[in-house]
Specification:
The protein is an alpha+beta fold. Helix content is about 25%, strand content about 20%.
């Protein structure tokens, strides 16, 4: 139940219901369930079904397909945070004998290892995992499609390798590690490798007639880390809250944020979507959404989160095709974000201000380009051009008195405060760029020097 302050307006609720009703009707889905979360609270859920009185609810399990990959990625990041591996490690260091051990863990997480998209025939999603008892059976003979690290090429077998890596390092099954390290801490008691009642059955709908065919529900065996899980809208929204903020019981906020960073070049011309570490993210209607979509025969699923709007949406359905569930989930986020935009927190002054940092704020010039340096609420610095789309970045303090860039062109670059002999600030050095209080300040160490005649008019 939601409190009165958390409930959506009636008009917003009707718009959400209309969107999923249209999706279920036009997509000819046997059933569909969806839910929306705002500020960490479920504020709306709805469902449609082809059978009167049997609509699913927030506790009904559906198979979520490749959303499983995000869970596997979290497990790998946990190993990294514990110092048990490095993302730049070759797979061979921790899981020898695969035949593709030269690819890195980072490349596997971001689908840039160059591995094939699918396991060898027969189609692994519709056949028992017992047909592929060894990793060699999953990888097949043609293991390399592309040069590792050069491009994004989605690979289901790549996540099988990551699941095997988790098992090797932890000394326990992927399913057991998942339960112990993610599902139980987050209270996701309705997420499981095998279906648990109540759950939906998977169906294929004939493309040219309104008739249905039941789909097989196979245990994927070694391929489980790529797509095995069943879950509910309620559980997936708990997972969405974790992906937005982090949870130190599972993975810290900084590591969760790293999952959203682009991991490999995208296809040429594709600027609207990227892949991080186990997370997809897309640009839709001017906002960035991250999460994952999933499909297995009989099921489609989508989870999208907008951090800027603090809104998440989940859509689950039990049909093989006919619906672009990622688009439906994105529309649910858009509906709430635009109809009831997030109310900003009250502005509050900093609890205290460092006098030396405060003295650094204001205009700084790189040549003749004006930039503004500000203090950020978290105690960092932010340098942004006064006009236009020039180079800007946020910086965090280092123990040696320098600052390191966190984003943009200056990510990883060092900002140094260069002082005169009397302790006053002469200039800022940012990756060899000199920023001064006046354009081309002759008293600062301007590369190439400053003309002795200084500034002049046309007739000078």
């Amino acid at each position: 139940m939601t409190s009165a302050s958390e409930q959506l307006l009636p008009g917003t609720q009707r718009a959400l219901l209309h969107r999923i009703a249209t999706a279920q009707s036009e997509g000819r889905a046997p059933s569909l369930v969806a839910a929306v979360q705002r500020q960490g609270q479920i504020v709306w859920s709805g469902s449609r079904s082809c059978v009167d009185g049997h609509a699913p609810d927030a506790d009904t399990q559906f198979r979520i397909g490749s959303i499983t990959k995000t869970f596997t990625a979290v497990l790998v990041l946990r190993l990294r945070d514990e110092g048990l591996l490095d993302l730049d490690d070759p797979l061979e260091k921790h899981l020898p004998g695969t035949g593709v051990g030269g690819v890195t863990i980072h490349q596997l997480l971001g689908h840039s290892a160059g591995l094939g998209a699918e396991a060898p025939a027969p189609w692994w999603e519709r056949t028992p995992g017992t047909l592929r008892p060894e990793l060699a059976d999953v990888l097949g003979e043609q293991t390399r499609m592309h040069t590792p690290g050069r491009r994004h090429h989605y690979s289901n077998p790549g996540y099988t390798l990551l699941g095997a890596l988790v098992e090797k390092v932890r000394g326990a099954s992927w399913a057991e590690v998942l339960r112990r390290e993610i599902l139980e801490p987050l209270g996701m008691h309705r997420t499981s490798p095998q279906p648990q009642a109540p759950h939906a059955g998977g169906w294929a709908v004939h493309p040219w007639a309104d008739v249905m065919l039941p789909e097989p529900t196979e245990d994927l065996g070694l391929m489980a880390p790529a797509g095995q899980l069943w879950s509910t809208t309620g559980d997936l929204l708990r997972f969405a809250a974790f992906l937005a903020e982090g949870d130190d019981r599972v993975l810290c906020a900084a590591s969760v944020k790293q999952m959203r960073e682009p991991s490999a070049p995208t296809e040429s011309g594709d600027w609207e979507s990227h892949y991080g570490l186990g997370l997809q993210f897309v640009r839709r209607d001017g906002r960035t959404l991250f999460g994952h979509t999933g499909s297995l025969p009989g099921f489609l699923a989508a989870l999208w989160v907008s951090v800027e709007d603090d809104v998440a949406a989940v859509v689950l359905t039990n049909t093989t095709s006919g619906l672009i569930v990622g688009g439906v989930a994105a529309d649910l986020v858009k509906t709430v974000a635009e109809a009831e935009p997030r109310i900003p927190q009250p502005w509050r002054p900093l609890p205290e201000a460092d006098a030396e940092l405060l003295a650094l704020t204001g205009p700084w010039y790189w040549g003749t380009s004006t930039n503004i340096l500000r203090l950020t609420p978290d105690g960092g610095l932010e340098l942004q051009p006064l006009r236009g789309n020039g180079r800007g970045a946020r910086f965090t303090a280092q123990p040696d008195g320098t600052w390191v860039g966190l984003n943009g062109y200056y990510a990883g670059e060092t900002l140094r405060i260069v002082r005169n002999g009397d302790g006053s600030v002469n200039h800022l050095d940012l990756g060899s760029f000199v920023f001064t209080r006046e354009p081309y300040d002759a008293t600062a160490a301007i590369p190439g020097g400053v003309d002795e005649g200084r500034w002049r008019g046309l007739g000078a």
